């Protein structure tokens, strides 16, 4: 049989124990609270997603001799053409998007093609073997031949360049050839660098470099894909 002092101690311990347990739980919860995130808007100007393409004649979906008769004059070759198997041109290009998607840096090294023979250079949207519409017309950003004179084409693009390309299309033909839908099959077209990056993630952007002898299909073409990690 417990004495009165012993019984009093037991009652006191019973009352204190839940409070101690609660304090321990509160301390544990406090210890598990994550530290505040480190936020820096300036990091938006750093490079985020990167896509690359290797350009070759083999990715062009047809031969210039098979250009449809109804093709508008500006898209027909004005110099002798070669078959894909006869052409030596090659290219390697990258798109480097800033993390805030305010701009994209474009660099393309071209070999085996005289810059003086280049008459058009675009980024198109579309799947392999399709002739997709134009998202970016590089000729609207400066002189193509001068830019390629050292073998490397480079330019910085913003929303304004996409808008300028879209505005360059005239009439029914322009509406069909210019501008890329954000979602295939829908009418809404990309108007921003963010929209361009979204289409790149869908795997539906490609470079196409045209020359006077390979104007309709293009001379070399390259599908853009997420850049592979560099081997250590």
Your description of this structure?
The protein has a single domain, classed as Immunoglobulin-like. With 232 residues, the protein is α+β, with helices and mostly antiparallel strands. The N and C termini lie far apart (77 Å). Helix content is 25%, strand content 25%. It has helices at 4-32, 144-147, 159-168, 171-177, 193-201; strands spanning 47-55, 90-98, 104-111, 118-125, 134-137, 152-157, 205-211, 220-223, 225-226. The strands form two sheets. The protein has a five-stranded antiparallel β-sheet with strand order 6-3-2-1-9. It has a four-stranded antiparallel β-sheet with strand order 5-4-7-8. The longest helix has 29 residues, at 4-32.
Descriptive terms for the model:
about 230 residues; alpha+beta; Immunoglobulin-like; five-stranded antiparallel sheet; four-stranded antiparallel sheet; 5 helices; 9 strands; globular
Topology:
Layout: H1 4-32, E1 47-55, E2 90-98, E3 104-111, E4 118-125, E5 134-137, H2 144-147, E6 152-157, H3 159-168, H4 171-177, H5 193-201, E7 205-211, E8 220-223, E9 225-226
Antiparallel strand pairs: 1-2, 1-9, 2-3, 3-6, 4-5, 4-7, 7-8
> What structural class should be given to the helix and strand makeup?
alpha+beta
Order of helices and strands: HEEEEEHEHHHEEE
Would you state the CATH class? Mainly Beta
Strand order of the largest sheet: 6-3-2-1-9
Bin the helical content.
Answer: 25-40%
Instruction: Tell me the total number of β-strands.
Output: 9
**C-alpha termini separation:** 77 Å
Architecture in CATH? Answer: Sandwich
**CATH T-level fold name:** Immunoglobulin-like
Task: Tell me, rounded to a whole number, the average pLDDT.
Answer: 87
Question: In one word, what is the shape?
Answer: globular
Note poorly predicted spans. 9-16
What is the C-alpha radius of gyration, as a whole number of Å?
30 Å
Q: Into how many domains do the coordinates divide?
A: 1
Indicate the proportion of strand residues: 15-25%
Largest sheet: 5 strands, antiparallel
């Amino acid at each position: 049989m417990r004495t009165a002092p012993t019984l009093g101690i037991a009652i006191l311990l019973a009352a204190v124990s839940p409070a101690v347990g609660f304090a321990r739980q509160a301390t544990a919860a406090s210890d598990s609270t994550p530290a505040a995130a480190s936020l820096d808007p300036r990091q938006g100007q750093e490079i985020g997603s990167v896509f690359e393409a290797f350009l070759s004649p083999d990715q062009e979906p047809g031969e210039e001799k098979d250009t449809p008769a109804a093709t508008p004059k500006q898209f027909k070759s004005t110099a002798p053409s070669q078959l894909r198997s006869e052409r030596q041109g090659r290219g390697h290009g990258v798109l480097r998007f800033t993390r805030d998607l305010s701009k994209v840096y474009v660099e393309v090294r071209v070999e085996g093609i005289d810059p003086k023979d280049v008459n058009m250079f675009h980024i198109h949207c579309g799947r392999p073997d399709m002739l997709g519409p134009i998202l970016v017309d590089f000729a609207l950003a400066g002189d193509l031949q001068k830019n390629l004179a050292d073998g490397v084409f480079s330019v910085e693009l913003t929303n304004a360049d996409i808008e300028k390309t879209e505005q360059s299309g005239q009439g029914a033909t322009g509406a069909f050839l210019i501008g890329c839908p954000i979602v295939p099959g829908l009418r809404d077209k990309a108007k921003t660098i963010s929209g361009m990056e979204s289409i790149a993630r869908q795997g539906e952007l490609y470079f196409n470099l045209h020359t006077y002898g390979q104007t309709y299909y293009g001379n070399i073409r390259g599908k853009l894909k997420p850049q592979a990690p560099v081997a250590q």
